[in-house]
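Fill in residues.
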C-alpha cells in the first residue's frame, strides 16, 4: 500500500514538472518557437549537410559550407549506429524548451529520491536545480548541446550513488550506463569533463571511507568496478561520435599548435592560455550565485537602454570639446555588467535560498556527502576564477589531461549548480528528520549561518559602494565624475534591489526553520513556504533572460535568412530585437541568393559585411570563406589569423584567389556591394614550379608572396613524394571540375607532361581518398592547407571521395556496446526478480511451517 502511494506521489511530481515547464514556456501553446542565436548560426552552417541528407537520404561527413570545408562531426551529423542518440531524441520529444526544463526537473527528482528517499525533498530539490538561472541563459543563447548534456547530470549522479551509497548494484549499473551514454550523446564534452572533475571527489571520499574501514573495501572495489564498466559501455555506445571527433579534434584549434609565434610554440597541445581563460569569473563575482546583479547581471540588462540615454544627455550637456569626447569614449563599456569577464548574457544565479540551505547542508548533511561535495565545490569555484587564480589554472592547463582543450572556465560553475541543490535538500532532510542532531545543535547552526548570511548581506547593502566599487578600472580612468557618479548610483540601485530581495528570502527561510524547530510550524508547511518563495525568486530572475520575447513565429525560427522584405514582415517583427536583426540582413541575404542563383558552379564567397568569422548567412546560400564555429581546423584558423582577420591589400587577395573566392561582398548590410573576382584560381589548377620550405611558418608566409597559379609551396617533409614523379611545364594543360557534391568531387584533366594538380579544397588527412582513373593514389598537402596530387601526362578522370574508416569501425563498436548494455540489463533485472521470488517463497514456506 505504501509503495503504491509513493508511486502516486512520484507520478504527481512528474506531472507538476510538466506543468511548470509548460507554464514557463507558454508561447509554445500558440505555435511559436525559440529564436536562439547559436541555432540560427547552426542553420546557416549546416544547410549543405541538411540539403544533402534530404536529397540523397544519406549522410555526408564533410561540408564545404564554412571555412573552406570541414568535417560535419560537430555540425549536427547523424551516425547510423547511434541508437543511444535515438533514445535521447525520444526523451526530448516535447517542444523546446519544455523538453529541457522537464528533464532538468525530472533528472534531479531521481537524484533526490536516491539521496534522501523522500519525494517531498526530491521535489523541492528538483525546483532548486531546474530553475538555476544559468540554464535559462544558455537556452536563450541556443547552447542546446550544453543544456542537453546538463539535463543528464543529476540522473547520472543518481546511478553512481545507487552503486556506492545504496549498494543497488544492478539498478545502479543500468541507470549509470544509460544516463552516461545519453550525456555523451548530447555531445558537449566540456560539460561532461567538468562534471567528472567534481565527481572525482566522490571517488576519493569513498576510497578514504574504505581505507578507514567505514565501509567494506570489497564493496568499494565492486562498486568502482561496476561504475567503471558502466562508463566504458556508455562511451562504447557513442563510439562513432567519439572516434570521429577524437580523430577530428587533433586537426583543430583544440589540437596541437602548428606555428611558432609570440603566444605559442609548435607542438603545444590545446589553445593558448589567453583563449582558454578569456571568460574567467571574478572572485567577488562568485557572490552572484547568491545575489544575481552583484556585478550587474548581464551585459544587456533592460535598464541599460535608459542608462545609455541618460548618459548621452549628460555628455551632451557637459562635454564641450572633441578631445574630451574622445577620451570619454574610451571609458564606455557595458553599462549593466562590470565584472571581470569580457561580457556575459547573465549571472550564474543559484538562488538566495538555495545558497543559504547549501551552507546549512555542509553542517547538517552526513559526512559521506558533506566532504566530497565541499571539495568539489571549492575546486570548481577556484577553477572558474581562471586568470584571477593563475596558480591553479596554470597547474591544470599544464598537467591535467584535456583541460587545455576547453575555454571559458566560468562555465565550470555548472558543477556547483548541481551540488548546491543536492547538499541543500540532504541537509534540510536531516534538519527535520535526523535523530542524531539535537535541537541545540540545530538552533546554534541555524543562528550562526542565518545570522552570518543576513549580516553579510546587510553589510553589502549598507557599505556596498565602498566594497564593490561598481565601476571598472577603465571607467574610473576615462569617465569624468559627472558620468561616473551617475553610473555608480544606477548600478548600486540595481544591486541593492536584488540584495534586499535576497535578505528578505533568506529571512523568511530562517524564520520558517526556527518556527518548525520550535514545532510552531508544520514540516510540510515549512517545505511549501520555502519551495514557493524559492520558486518565485528564481522564476522572476530567469524571466529577465528567457521570456516571451525569445519566442517568434515559426517562419522566423525555421527560416531566419529572409530575402524579401514587406510591410507585413515588418509588422510581424515589430520591436523584437531578435527579429530586427533578420530584417537588417535581408539586403545581404538577397545579394547572396542572387549570386547563388545566377552562378551555380562550385566556388566560395568572401563576405566582409557581416563579419567573416561570425556569420553563417553566406554559408546558407553558398560556400563561404568564413563561418561561425568554435572548433575550426587548425590550419584554416592559422590562415584566417594571418591573412583574413586583419586584411592586407596585397597578400589577402592572393589568399582569396587560392581559396577560389569568386565573389566578394563589401559595403554595409543595407547596401552590400558585390565585387566579382576574375583572378580566382578556380577549383583546381596545374603548377610547374615547386617551392620547398622547411617549416610551417615558412609555408604560411610564402603563400602570401608567391603566384599560386604557377608555384606550389611544399613542406620539405613531402619532398620524397616527387622522387619518381617529375613535374614539367605545359601551358596547354587543363583540369576542370565536372561533378561537385559535399563529399565527392570529380575532375577531368588533360596534359602533355606530368603535372602537380593543386585543388582549392582543404587538406584533411583522415578519410579523403583521391583516385585517378579509379585507382587510388597518394596525395600531399600544398600551400599550407590545400590538397595536391601528382597527375601523369594524358587524359584522366580524377575523383575525390570522403569515406572515413572511423565511421564504419565506430558504428559496429557502438552497436555491440548497446547490445551488451541491453543484455546485461536484462540479466540483471532477471536476477533481481528471481532473487525476490525466491525470498517470497522462503517466507511463505516459513509461514506454512
Amino acid at each position: 500500500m505504501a509503495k503504491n502511494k509513493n508511486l502516486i506521489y512520484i507520478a504527481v511530481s512528474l506531472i507538476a514538472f510538466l506543468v511548470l515547464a509548460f507554464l514557463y514556456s507558454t508561447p509554445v501553446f500558440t505555435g511559436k518557437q525559440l529564436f536562439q542565436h547559436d541555432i540560427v548560426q547552426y542553420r546557416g552552417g549546416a544547410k549543405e549537410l541538411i540539403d544533402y541528407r534530404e536529397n540523397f537520404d544519406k549522410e555526408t561527413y564533410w561540408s564545404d559550407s564554412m571555412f573552406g570545408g570541414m568535417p560535419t562531426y560537430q555540425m549536427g551529423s547523424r551516425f547510423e549506429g547511434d541508437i543511444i542518440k535515438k533514445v535521447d531524441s525520444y526523451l526530448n520529444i516535447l517542444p523546446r524548451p519544455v523538453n529541457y526544463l522537464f528533464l532538468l526537473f525530472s533528472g534531479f527528482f531521481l537524484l533526490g529520491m536516491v539521496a534522501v528517499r523522500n519525494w517531498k525533498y526530491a521535489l523541492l530539490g528538483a525546483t532548486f536545480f531546474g530553475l538555476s538561472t544559468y540554464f535559462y541563459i544558455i537556452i536563450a543563447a541556443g547552447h542546446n548541446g550544453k543544456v542537453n548534456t546538463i539535463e543528464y547530470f543529476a540522473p547520472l549522479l543518481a546511478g553512481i550513488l545507487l552503486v556506492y551509497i545504496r549498494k543497488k548494484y544492478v539498478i545502479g549499473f543500468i541507470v549509470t550506463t544509460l544516463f552516461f551514454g545519453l550525456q555523451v550523446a548530447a555531445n558537449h564534452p566540456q560539460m561532461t569533463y567538468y562534471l567528472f572533475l567534481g565527481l572525482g571527489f566522490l571517488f576519493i571520499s569513498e576510497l578514504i571511507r574504505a581505507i578507514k574501514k567505514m565501509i567494506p573495501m570489497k564493496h568499494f572495489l565492486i562498486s568502482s568496478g561496476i561504475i567503471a564498466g558502466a562508463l566504458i559501455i556508455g562511451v562504447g555506445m557513442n563510439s562513432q561520435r567519439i572516434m570521429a571527433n577524437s580523430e577530428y579534434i587533433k586537426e583543430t584549434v583544440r589540437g596541437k599548435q602548428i606555428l611558432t609565434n609570440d603566444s605559442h610554440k609548435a607542438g603545444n597541445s590545446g589553445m593558448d592560455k589567453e583563449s582558454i581563460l578569456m571568460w574567467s569569473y571574478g572572485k567577488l563575482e562568485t557572490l552572484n550565485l547568491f545575489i544575481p546583479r552583484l556585478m550587474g547581471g548581464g551585459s544587456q540588462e533592460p535598464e541599460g537602454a535608459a542608462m545609455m540615454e541618460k548618459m548621452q544627455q549628460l555628455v551632451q550637456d557637459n562635454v564641450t570639446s572633441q578631445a574630451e569626447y574622445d577620451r570619454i569614449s574610451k571609458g564606455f563599456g557595458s553599462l549593466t555588467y562590470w565584472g571581470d569577464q569580457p561580457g556575459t548574457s547573465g549571472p550564474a544565479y543559484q538562488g538566495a535560498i538555495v545558497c543559504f540551505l547549501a551552507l546549512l547542508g555542509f553542517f547538517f548533511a552526513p559526512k559521506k556527502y558533506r566532504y566530497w561535495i565541499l571539495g568539489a565545490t571549492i575546486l570548481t569555484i577556484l577553477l572558474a576564477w581562471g586568470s584571477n587564480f593563475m596558480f591553479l589554472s596554470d597547474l591544470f592547463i599544464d598537467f591535467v589531461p584535456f583541460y587545455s582543450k576547453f575555454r571559458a572556465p566560468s562555465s565550470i560553475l555548472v558543477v556547483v549548480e548541481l551540488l548546491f541543490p543536492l547538499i541543500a535538500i540532504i541537509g534540510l532532510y536531516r534538519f527535520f528528520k535526523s535523530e542524531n542532531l539535537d535541537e541545540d545543535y540545530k538552533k546554534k547552526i541555524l543562528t550562526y549561518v542565518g545570522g552570518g548570511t543576513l549580516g553579510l548581506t546587510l553589510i553589502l547593502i549598507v557599505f556596498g559602494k565602498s566594497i564593490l566599487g561598481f565601476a571598472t578600472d577603465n571607467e574610473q580612468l576615462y569617465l569624468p565624475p559627472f558620468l561616473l557618479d551617475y553610473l555608480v548610483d544606477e548600478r548600486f540601485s540595481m544591486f541593492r534591489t536584488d540584495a534586499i530581495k535576497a535578505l528578505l528570502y533568506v529571512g523568511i527561510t530562517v524564520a520558517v526553520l526556527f518556527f518548525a524547530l520550535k514545532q510552531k510550524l508544520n514540516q510540510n508547511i515549512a517545505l511549501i513556504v520555502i519551495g514557493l518563495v524559492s520558486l518565485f525568486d528564481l522564476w522572476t530572475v530567469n524571466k529577465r533572460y528567457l521570456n516571451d520575447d525569445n519566442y517568434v513565429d515559426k517562419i522566423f525560427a525555421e527560416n531566419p535568412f529572409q530575402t524579401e522584405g514587406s510591410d507585413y514582415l515588418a509588422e510581424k517583427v515589430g520591436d523584437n530585437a531578435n527579429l530586427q536583426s533578420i530584417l537588417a540582413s535581408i539586403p545581404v541575404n538577397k545579394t547572396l541568393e542572387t549570386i547563388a542563383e545566377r552562378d551555380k558552379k562550385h566556388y566560395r564567397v568572401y563576405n566582409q559585411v557581416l563579419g567573416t568569422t561570425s556569420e553563417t548567412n553566406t554559408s546558407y546560400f553558398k560556400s563561404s570563406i568564413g563561418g561561425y564555429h568554435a572548433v575550426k581546423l587548425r590550419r584554416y584558423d592559422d590562415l584566417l589569423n594571418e591573412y583574413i582577420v586583419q586584411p592586407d591589400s596585397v597578400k589577402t587577395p592572393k589568399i582569396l584567389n587560392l581559396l577560389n573566392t569568386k565573389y566578394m561582398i563589401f559595403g554595409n548590410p543595407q547596401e552590400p556591394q558585390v565585387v566579382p573576382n576574375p583572378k580566382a584560381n578556380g577549383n583546381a589548377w596545374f603548377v610547374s614550379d615547386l617551392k620547398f620550405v622547411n617549416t610551417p611558418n615558412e609555408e604560411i608566409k610564402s603563400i602570401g608572396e608567391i603566384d599560386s597559379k604557377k608555384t606550389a609551396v611544399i613542406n620539405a617533409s613531402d619532398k620524397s613524394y616527387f622522387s619518381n614523379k617529375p613535374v614539367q611545364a605545359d601551358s596547354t594543360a587543363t583540369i576542370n571540375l565536372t561533378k561537385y557534391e559535399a563529399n565527392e568531387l570529380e575532375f577531368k584533366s588533360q596534359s602533355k607532361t606530368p603535372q602537380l594538380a593543386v585543388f582549392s579544397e582543404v587538406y584533411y588527412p583522415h578519410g579523403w581518398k583521391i583516385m585517378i582513373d579509379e585507382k587510388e593514389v597518394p596525395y600531399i598537402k600544398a600551400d599550407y592547407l590545400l590538397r595536391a596530387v601528382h597527375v601523369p601526362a594524358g587524359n584522366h578522370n580524377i575523383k575525390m571521395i570522403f569515406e572515413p574508416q572511423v565511421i564504419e569501425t565506430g558504428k559496429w563498436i557502438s552497436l555491440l556496446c548497446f547490445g551488451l548494455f541491453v543484455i546485461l540489463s536484462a540479466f540483471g533485472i532477471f536476477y533481481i526478480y528471481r532473487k525476490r521470488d525466491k525470498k517470497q517463497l522462503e517466507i511463505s514456506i516459513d509461514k506454512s511451517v
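The first strand starts at residue 33 and ends at 34.
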